[in-house]
C-alpha cells in the first residue's frame, strides 16, 4: 500500500473512532429536557414543570410557609428580578434582589387591597446599585375576597411583565381556591361526623347504663365486662382524630355496641357476623358502618312482629341481623341485613335525596354522601327494602384509594 493510501486509511479510522466516541457520549448520558424537541417545546415544558412545583405549597393556602416555598418558582415563571407575596397585613415571602423594598410594599398596595384592582408603581429606591426601579402588583382573590397580592419587580416599566404577572396571579388564585375547597370539605366531613355522633341516642346510653346496673348484684362479672364494652364504644365513637379508620376497628366498635344491645334484649336479638380476615385492614370513613347497624337495631326491634301463641303482654319475635365483610377482588363488600319492619321504597328515595329529616335519614344520607365524596358516585349505598320485608344494605370499599388511610 502506498503512503497516500495509508494516510487515507488513517484519516478514515480516525473519523470512525471520533464518530463512535461522540455517539457513545450521546447514548451514555441520559436525555435532558434540552435534548428533546424545539426551543418552543422546551420552553413550554420548563414553564409547566415550574408551575407544577409551585402548586403544592399554595394548596395549603396563603401562609408564610407556602409563600416562602412558592415565591422562587413564581419568580422563575415571570423571569423577573424580584417577587413577593403578601396577605392583607404583611409580606409573607420574598425572592430575588432588593429585600430592603419589603418594608415599603404594604404602603404601595393599600388601594389594591381595598379595591381589588391591580396597580403599578415606581419603587422610589435611592440605592443606585439596586436593579428594582418599577413594580406591578396584582390582587389575589378568592370568592371576591382579596386575600393579598403578588408583586413583581423589574429594572424598568414593562407592559409584558404586567400582563404576565396578571396571568400568574390568576393561576395562584386557582390554587388558593382549591385550598379553600379542601378546607371546606374537611369542615363538612367534621360537621357530618358530629351529626352522626349526635345521632347516638341518649336513650341508648341511658338504657345501656341501666342494663349494666341491673347486673351489678346478680352478675358482677358481667356488669364489669359490659361497663368496659361501654367505655370502649363511647371512646371510639367520640374520638377527635382521624377522618378514616379500618374495617377491623369499625367492626370491633359494632361488636361492642351489639353486646350492650344484647344485655337489654337478650334472646330477642340474634346476630350473625361473617368476616374475611384479608379485608380487616381496609380503610373507610370513620363512623361509616356503626350508624347503619344502629339504625337496623333501633327500627328493627321497634317493628318486630309478635309470635303466634304469645302471652297476652306479647313476646317479640327474634330480631336477626347479619353483618358480612367479604373479599371481592380489589374491593371489600360489606352487607348489613335484618328481618325488621323495613321501609317504604319511596320514603327511602326521599331520604337519600335529602328530603327527609328523621333520625333514620340522618344516618343513611350521611353515610351515603360521605362514601360518594371519598370514592366517587359509584360507591354509594345500595339498599333493598320494603314494608315488612326487612332491609339489606350493601356497600363496596376499594382496598386502596389515594389519600384514604386508616388511623
How does this structure look, described?
This protein is α+β, with helices and mostly antiparallel strands. It has twelve helices and twelve strands. The strands form three sheets. Strands 2-1-5-4-3 form a five-stranded antiparallel beta sheet, with helices on both faces. β9 and β10 form a beta hairpin. α6 packs antiparallel against α12 (359-375), α8 packs across α9 and α10 (290-302) runs antiparallel to α12. The longest helix has 41 residues, at 159-199. It starts with a helix and ends in a 9-residue tail after the last strand.
Topology:
Blueprint: H1 3-28, H2 39-58, H3 64-78, E1 82-86, E2 91-96, H4 102-108, H5 110-115, E3 119-122, E4 134-142, E5 145-154, H6 159-199, H7 202-218, H8 220-237, E6 244-246, H9 247-265, E7 269-275, E8 283-285, H10 290-302, E9 319-328, E10 331-338, H11 345-352, H12 359-375, E11 382-385, E12 391-398
Parallel strand pairs: 7-9
Antiparallel strand pairs: 1-2, 1-5, 3-4, 4-5, 6-8, 9-10, 10-12, 11-12
Helix pairs in contact: 2-3, 6-12, 7-8, 7-9, 8-9, 9-10, 10-12
